[in-house]
Every structure is written in C-alpha cells, then in structure tokens.
Here is the input.
Amino acid sequence: MPKISLNMITQRSIEEGAAMEKGKTNPDYFDACSICEMHPDDMKKAGIWKNTNVLVTSECGSVIVKAITATQYVPPGLAHIRQGVWANQVVPPRTQSTGTPQYSGFPVTIEPAPDEKLKTALQLVQGSVGLWKGGQ
Amino acid sequence: MAEIIVKGGFIIDPTRKIDGDVGDVAIKDGKIVDKVSSSAKVIDAKGKVVMAGGVDVHSHVAGPKVNVGRLFRPEDKLLSGFCRSGMAQKNGYRMESGFSVPSTFKTGYDYARMGYGFVMEAAMPPIHSPHVHEEIHDTPIIDEAALPVFGNNWFVMDYLKKGEVENTGAYIAWLLKATKGFGIKVVNPGGTAAWGWGLNCLTLDDPVPYFEVTPREIITGLMQANEYLGLPHSMHVHQNDLGNPGNYQLTLDSLKLTETVKPKNKFGREQVMHSTHLQFHSYGGTGWGDFESKAKEVMDYVNKNKAITVDTGNVTLDETTTMTADGPFEHHLNGLNHLKWCNVDVEMETAAGVVPYVYDPNIKVCDIQWAIGLELALYAKDMNRIFITTDHPNAGPFTRYPRVIKWLMSRKAREDLLSSFKHKDKVIAATTLHQLERELTLFEIAQMTRSGPAKCLGMSNIYGGLAPGMSADVAVIDLNYKNMPGDPEQIEKAFQRAACFIKSGEVVVKDGEVVSNGHKKTVWVNVKMPENPQVTRDITQSFTKDYTVDIINYQVRDYLAPHPYVIDVDVEA
Amino acid sequence: MPKLIKGVGCPYCGSSCDDIEVLVSDDETRILEVHNACIIGTNLFHHANDPTRPRLPRQRQPDGSVKEIPYEEAIDYFAKTLLAAKKPLIYGFGSTNCEGMSAVGRIAEKAGAVLDNCATICHGPSFLAMFDNGYPSCTLGEAKNRADVVVFWGCNPMHAHPRHTSRYSIFPRGYFTQKGQMQRTVLCVDPRETDTAKLADHHLMLDQSHDYELFDAFRTVLRGFDIPEVVAGIPREKIKEAAEIMKKAKFCMIFFGMGCTHTDGRNHNIDAAISLTRDLNEHTKCSIMAMRGHYNIAGPGQVWSWQFGFPYCIDLTKGSHAHMNPGETSSIDLAMRDEVDCFVNVGTDAGAHFPIQAVQHLKKHPWITVDPNFCMASEIADLHIPVRIAGVDEPGVVYRMDNVPIQFRAVIKGLPGVPSDEELFDMVYERMCELTNTAPIWLAAKEDRKYPQNPAVI
Here is the structure.
C-alpha cells in the first residue's frame, strides 16, 4: 500500500464554526470536520482518490477521514484537517513547555483506506474513554 | 450598626485645627457623632495618634493599564511581600499578589492596613470604564472614584478648537454619567492624541496633528469647562513633556494658565488646577548629564498661587512599573531602558503605555528624582495644597507612603540615605535637599494626606476630618505624639500598619491585620443640565461612524457599581 | 408583537460584534430572526431555541448511562468533589461572561485548584511573549480609523472571525480612512492560500512553521542589512517589498493568530512579531494584536490578572499565594503528567478540542462539565450542569480581542430553573463553606445581592 508523509496543520474554518454552533452531534459538524485537505499531486503519489477515506497516522494516534482537494489551496507537502474532534485524534499533546499542544506542523503518514468507515464525533471521543455504547 | 468610641488618643484633625489634643472620637451608623451610649465598643487609643482615614488624590489602582501591568509582569509577583497567612486563608480573606502592581484584593487590604479610606483612580479611558468599575468592584474596603481622561478626546479637541466651552461642558457631563466618572483628568494634553500618528506635543503651543488645537487651548478650555459645570474637583492635569530635563519652564507656563480662571463651585474647593506628580515636572538641565532640581523655582510659584494644588509623585527608589495615558512618554522611556513595552492606543479618546522601571539608588538621575520629590514638600508653605503621592506605581508603589512620610518627618532618615548613594556628591550638587533642615510635623502630614486632598476633591464634608457628620473613617497610628520615636524607622512602621482602622464605622484593620472586607462605595459625579442637542447629535453620529462599540453597550450599567455614592451637580441653563 | 432588539453583542468569536439585531417572540422566549451576524453567530442564536437544550444536571450512572438530577444534588456533588480532590483543574471560560470568571475565582481559591482558560491551547504563547517583550497594541477602532497597511500573519479572519475585515480591518471607512479598502494595503502571511490571502494585495506563502525566520528577515531588512536570496520560501525581493510597504505606512497594523502560536517556535514567533512591531515604531506608527478566538477569551486573562496577578495557568494549590509556570501549571501538561485528580470544564469543550490523549488522562478522575449545551465534554462527563448562555439569555461583561469591555445583554428569558455560571459557582461556594464549616465571605459588592437588607452607609 503506498503512503505519503506530509506536514499536518489543523486550523479553523467557517464551516466548522457554523456547524459547531448547531451542535457537535449535528451532521453538519461531521461533514465539516471529518475531512483532510491535500494537494492533488500528493493524493496522486499516495494513490488516493478524492472524496475517499484515508488513514491519517501521527506519532500519537490515527484517524479515518475523507480526503478532499483543498477548499483553500494547500501546497504539496502540507495537509490540513479542520480543527475539531477528528483532527485531535492525531494532534500531539507535546507543548514545547509552553502549555500549547502541537496543533500545527507535525508529521503524519496518509494512506488510502477506502473501505474504512468514518466514525462520528461521539464514537471517537466516548470510544477513547471507554464510554461508547454504540456499534463499531 | 454598632457604636464605637475611640478613646484617649492624640487627635490630629487639621479641619478643626486640632493638633494632638487628647480626646475621644465617637462613631455611630457609619458616621462620626458627638457622643455615643455607654454600650459602644471601646477602642483604646491611649498613647497613639488618631487621624481621619487617608485620602489618596492620585493613584493608578484599577483599569486597563493597571491590569496590563499585572498581566505582563509575572516577575512583580516575586516581590509580593507577605502572602496570605494561614489565618487569613481560614477566615476567607482573598489571596494577595503583586508588589508594584498589586491585585485588587491586595490593593484594598494594603490601603486599609495603612489607614486609607478613599482612593482616586487617576486615569480612566472612557471606553474601558466598565473594566475600571469591575476592578473597583473587586477591590475590598476602600471607597474609590475614577477620573475619565479628556485631554486628548476628539470631541473635546474639536469643541475647544472652535472655542466652544459650553459644548465641551455638555460633553463632559454626558461622559461623566456614561462612565460613572468623577472629574476631568488631562494627560499630556494633545500629545497623546498626536501619538496616534507616533508624534507628541512637547510645548504648550505645538498644534495637535489634524485637530490644530494646542495644549494651551486644551488646558485653559478644560479649566473653564470645569468651572462652568462647577464640579467638586478641579481639572486634574499631567502636563506635557513629563520626565525630561529642563521641563520646569513648561511646567511654570502651564501653571500660570490658572491666572485667568476663577473657581466656581459649591464644594468649598479653591483651586482651578490640580497639577499631579509635580516631581516629574520640576527638572532643570539640558540633558541627563547636567540634570538638576528645579523644585524651589516651581514651588515658589505654587506657594504664591492659591488656584493650584499639587501632589508630589515621590520616587521611592524601587523596581516598579510605569503606566500612563502619556503614550509617547512610555515609548520614549522604553527607548531609554529597553525593557518590555506595552502600548494601548484607544480609539477617539486616549492612549496608554506601560514599561517596567528600576529606580536604582546607584544611578544619579534616580537619586536626584528622589530628592526633588521630597524638596517639593519641604518647600511648600500651605500644606493643605500639596499631597503625598508616588503617582502609584509610576514613581513607586503606594505602599511606600509610610517611607515618604518618614523621609519628610526625619532629616536624619533622608540624610542617611543620601550619604549612602554612590554618586552622593553629584546628587548634592544637583539638588538642595541636603540644605533643607525642615522636618514635617504629624499635623502637616495629616494635612497632606487627609484634609488637603479631601478639600481639593471637593469632598471635605465627607472625608479627611473627624468632625461630626463625616464618614467614620478613623485611623489609629501607633505613634506617641508627646514622645516621638528617635528611630525614624518606627515612623515608617507605624504608618505601614495602622494599630486600628475603622472604615465607614466598621473596624476593618486591627493590629495591622485585615479583619473585615468592609463596605466599600464607588463615588461618582452626576451633572444635571438641560440637554444640549448639538452635543447629543455629535455623540450619536460619532458612535455610528467612528467608534467600534454601540453606544448602548458603552455606558456603564448600574449593577457594575452596586454601592454608588453619587454627588449631584446642578448646572443652570 | 415580536420585538426587535438592536445593538446586541454576539457571543461567538473575538470580534465580539455588538451591532447584531435580534427579533424575539412576544414572550421573549424564542429568537425568531438574527440580522447582521455572520453565519456562525446566526446559528448560535438560533441554537438557543433548541427544545432539547438540557434543563437539569445529568449525572453518569455506574452503568455508563446518564440520569437527570436536581441542581441541589449536582451542587453538592460539585462541592464535595472539589474538596476531596488534591489538585483539581478548572478549565475553559472561552464562552462565558466575566461575572462567572470572577465567581469561579472564589471557589478555585477555596478548593486549592489550578485555574486555566482556553488561552492555554490558543494564545498562551502570546502571553509568554508579552511577559518577555511587551505588547504595543491598540483598540480595533484605531485600526478602523487609521490603519493604511494591515498585515494578517498566521490568521484567517475570513473563516475564524468572519466580520473582522468588514467591521475593523479591511473594508470599513473610518475617520482617517474614508476610502475604506481602497485606502488600505493588505498583506497576508500564510502557508495556505486562505480566503484571507485571496483578499490580500500581497500574499507571502511561507513554508509552514518558518515564521520566526521570516519575522527575523523583516527585521534585518528594516535595519538595512542584507538577507539570503530566499527565506522561509519567500524570495528576498518579495520580503523587501513587503517590509518597505510596512515601513512607509502611516499606521501599520499587524494581526496574528494560531498559525504562529500552534506551531514550532510558539512564543518565540510572537516574540519576534512584537520585536518587529517595536522596530517599525522607529519609522512610523505600528500596532500588533492577537486574533483572540472567542468573544470573551480575553476576559479570564483580565479578571484573573486583577484577582491573582496572572492571566492563565494559575496554580492556587499552595493556598498562601498564586503561582504560574506554563509548561508546568498548564492544563495539557498537567493532564499528560497525571498531576490533577479532578477536571472541571466550563464554557468550552475540552472533549473536542484537547488532543485526545490529554482527554484520556483527565478522564481517569471525576470530570464535571458546566455548559449550556450538549458537547463532547458533556457526553463524557460524570456530571453535566447546564447553565444559561451568556449573551443570549444571560447578560454580562465580555472583553473583545482588543481588551475593550462590552456589556452584553440577554435577548431572551433564561430557561426556568437554570442558573447562570455566576449563580452556580456562588451556590457551589456556599456549599463548600457549609461542608468545611466556614462562613462564606463576599466582598462588599456581593453582599448587595446576598444580603439586601444591608444598608449602604455613608
């Protein structure tokens, strides 16, 4: 399976903000935040088709998100998952002794995972602390 | 409320010309009364001095720039001094922090421990007035008021450029009400407005860019507007060219602007200008090399002119935090010491800068500044017109007032310090302090810290004295009037921690420890006058076009000042 | 008759727009229309109508389900949990009013807690830089009325602060900027071509995480020295051109955001930005401002600075004095080192916005969430206590990103029985006092509400 190493950033977007204010269990929030924006060249290198799911793995975890071409242009080598539940599955909590985690600029590998299913926000967060009662 | 009688102390009350007579002070329902019943709680003041609560005419204790000072100086907390004791913790007194910029809790407690009952926040940017009132709300015990800044306000400059004193007055009346403010503060008139473009006004006739009005016109116009309204306090000015060698000439020129204005008010106030932290404005020389004191020249004029009151702004030779609405000055100061620099330019109204500063006793200029502050008081003839301040925290923290008092009362104390300076000879050459033998009396200290400032603020019926009917703010100081200590350190110690302090008829400090969070009040001035349609229109238009907040969210709501004491001023049409 | 309320403050982003108009139902219980707000603010106001909004505290049961309980019980649990904990962490406050922040200070002191706010994961590095280098800044009206050069560095207001550019920074016509956008040159420094970058006259698309180098290059150029051909992916000529634009400005305004604070360098990036601002003040007038994320996230920095002397990461466990050391007393670091044994999440969503590993660590101990709505932090909490929504059904003071206080109002009536943050914290404080057999001590101002019979004396 081909995979690609990219530099990940996780930042705000208006879609995320607008959806969050409807509630984090709202489908809008799922749509806005469970995506990874990449450059088409990088997608090609890793054998990723746009709008298919990928597995993003960092030094501290992994998450399934949907790869899309960037809504705001990202150059090759850079990837962006909007701030939120999905991004934070892979954000390293290291703070360089400042208190602030490495939300942006951390290495990830991204590989195609077209058959994996996206998890909901609740499933991810409750699942991570042993409270998820729903199905997989 | 319970009755209290403070028994057998040496009473010092300049308002009634009482100087050390042994007697009692009776208190009932928060006020001083002629007598109380035999069930009154007795405070034994035998062998101790009894004075009214202290009144601070000028101190930066609440608001945006004060909080910048707290926020950006974590290192200031290292010098906090005593922390919350186990007992204070158990009794629920709030945690205290900060040295030069204490937390609100520490501010209230420290003033109370020194026997102070009223403090004037010296500069309130109008748009930040809700912030000032939030902090005042969280400052226990002491009564407070705040002076909004007007000297660089676009409305004021616009009206005064056209010579419209009445419109200026109407705008001031509106703003005092909107901000729950007390009076007219002016900081570097015109200069701070020029700082919006990175410039300054360094003489009385430097026009403000775009507004084409001069500091001279702003000062004069605001004094006239103040008397037109008949406010309790006079125009309160921090003059141009603060802190620069040779500025005393400009200081004298500004002071002389009072000669054309007559006081008009029903509060017993006699001055038309309060010139604040005069120490910073009494400098001779052409640079830091020949920097010298001009305290005598400045005080010679002040002594002659009853229309002026001043406060000292004593340098205390501490590491402190300077903060002022004089934005260009702070930038200039930052160019001298290269420490960290905060600046806040405030739309339409003012600016502020904050820079840490170390008044190092090994530096000649700092020592000369220290001497000038003391000389001002020692040259003064009418002690009811000159008040002790440190322009807290600019020249030093307010917690050093007892030390300033020590220096003023003891030639030995100041000579000891003077002779310890590395550049002693140069300091002596540049000042006259060494020749001054005068030692102030307790009566004069009471004038400078009690009766004088209360009168200057137009509140001599409430604060600063012990006459029946006045607010029962009573400080018992552990000094024997008949047998003053030979060691001047004892004077400082006694004023640092009052033996007892009663605020609004309630014992709040006992043996130097806070024993109650008290009942504080916020004092503000409500000017009642007929509506001025032009000014109303100008204000509305400006909020639509230039401000970034809505006018209804700008005016301080009543709940932010839950214990108001409102002084009404009626202006005839 | 529905009522149109004008001049309403929007409790979403740090722009704290207070020109919103809200149409509310006759009985003041429903929001019908929202005017002037961005899509996010509009959604926020409408979401307050949600009939499923929680009205009672919800406690997690041993089987993992949740059960509604009365407020008294929740307050008792809250007080006991805080008192039992050796080092509770009280975190959040991005989205509540200053009255709540002030009230929580009292219980944090009583509990010997660590008090921290969302800045710890956002502009905390900016605070660190301010501690070292100061902060030459201004209010947003100065940008509006004067700025002719505006720099957006590592921030994307078109997404994170949607009305910032129209109210303050690019488009508005101010006193000395009557031509609005025509009179302003806009620079954007960002590794992506964001929607803000598209608006800019010059986009410097730097290599991600190379902000420090680029700030340094600007400073070097301004001091008249030469720089390498390419710095941080930007050609020398482009840097020189941008530096010249800033230097020639009448009033240069620099806004910076998470792009600088979330990446390598953290506070050092901001330190360099502040130094650049100081340098520019030798040539012209220049101000810098952090694009604070939430409408009142500047609030806890203000309130706690005047109460404790520090804006965030405040360790009160010593009892005698407050202590701050980001990296040690910061929420994420405390969590990762398992140093806290109780977590209270107030007016934010640590469940969604902390790195998941930090959430897992915190979840080992009791977790209490205080929030008007359901969120990730409420759905993993042992106790979720709903409160009123500041700026919607609860008034209060908020501090905009430029630290200007704005007095927000309530536009609808609060849900019956649901307290404000302030009321809740005061009730918890009173309960803590009962449990420890001490008398609650309020400052005088508080007494007015608590003991209305007490006369104000003068």
